[in-house]
Amino acid sequence: MTAMTRILALLVTINVLPAGAAAEPAAPAAAVSTGAAKGAAKKPERLPPQTEFPGEPDPTRIKWLRSLANRNDLRGRKPGLFSDFMDALLGSDSKSDILDRPYGIALDAKGRIYVTDTGTGRLHILDPGAGKAKSLEGSGDFALTSAVGVAVDPAGNVYVSDSADNSVKAFGPDHKPRWRADRLGTVAGELNRPTGLAWSPRGELVVIDSGNHRLAAFSPEGKFLRAFCQGGKDVGALSLAANIWAEADGTLVVSDPVAARVHLFTSTGAFISGFGEAGDSAGYMARPRGVASDSDGNIYVVDAVFSRVQMFDRQGQLLMYFGAPGGRSAEFGMPAGIAIDPTDRVYVVDGNNSRVQVFQYLKVPASAYEVPASSEPAKK
Is 113:68 a contact under the CB 8 Å cutoff? Predict the structure, then answer.
């Protein structure tokens, strides 16, 4: 159907043109049943999804805001006749998914969202402020084939780990290639299956070198600086780390799906603490993926198996969790990466649902949890 035909069809739909003006006739309407089958059981009504957590009677600490899956979502525009009219006029499709199988996520200072896509292999850049989206594919030695991790530095340089060729690729603010690290091996400066990336306030890129069970640091210019958190059998040893988050003070939060744990290190690699244990109930972990922390220091852990995000305190005590399996608002299908901006907006990559979901962390004073004193005199 041509753009003009689509416009004419829409004008007929909203009664601007008489029926028959469109170039292509509408398909005949399906027959409508005049009554339910005798004895048919009435289906129970499905409850709406929970969008505020943890739920009554507790005060709300996490509130669902929106989903970002297509250009209508980015523009804050609901699908409908106007959206269809604009698509027909511009020859675009605002309802099609931008993402396929999103995984990693990073944010920049301008509010843009960088999402790696294991389905398309490329990096998507979502700009809700401008209502636009574009993709970074690279070319030649910098072509992205299986983008996994992503990080952005304060200058706007973008770093992507690519599992297809065992590399980390750096692009400038203009998205032109800058450098790549791809030497396969175990000695200092070599990588073996790089995955998660984080930009440290020390001014360096921290790379999870998962095949070598360690972290590696590179300068903004691509110079190898050091390898740390390597091997060993102590409580802070990395088994097969996947995702990493750098806090404002340089603390590194690392998820380890194989060990079902989360580790905390200083910016130089000294072990601080860790928590987590394999299990199938709240507070335990099945497959921890993305990790991040909010302005109060709470640590969020995405679990791909449970299809939820768990929030822990610094000692590893479960505070609450949010999300459930499904495809509606605040529901997840194989969630992966997570990022939190300075305003405590929480961005969760919803892999199987091909979208990013946005939540707001709400600060709740301790007094909200205090049990009010009884007005009755104490019994003697």
Answer: yes
Query: What is the rounded CA–CA span in Å between residue 334 and residue 306?
Result: 8
Q: How far apart are the first and last CA of the chain?
A: 85
Give the model's confidence band at 106: pLDDT under 50 very low, under 70 low, under 90 confident, else very high.
Answer: very high
Q: Which strands form 113-117's sheet, in the order they lie side by side? A: 102-107, 113-117, 123-127, 132-136
Give dist(CA 148, CA 161) in Å, integer.
6
Radius of gyration of the chain (CA): 24
Instruction: Give the chain's largest Cα–Cα span.
Output: 89
195-208 per-position pLDDT tens digit: 999 999 999 999 99
Closest Cα to residue 228, out of 218, 246, 242, 215?
Answer: 215
Omega of the bond leading into 57 within 30 degrees of 0 (cis): yes
Beta bridge partners of 370: none
pLDDT tens profile 346-357: 999 999 999 999
pLDDT for the residue 45: 78
Mean pLDDT computed over 84-94: 55
Rounded CA gap, 346 and 360, in Å? 6
8 A C-beta contact, residue 316 and residue 298: no
Tell me the β-bridge partners of 136.
Answer: 123
Average pLDDT, the chain: 86
Per DSSP, what are the bridge partners of residue 160? 150, 169
Which residue from 212, 219, 204, 116 is spatially nearest to 162, judged by alpha carbons? 116
What integer pLDDT is reported at residue 6 of this predicted model?
A: 53
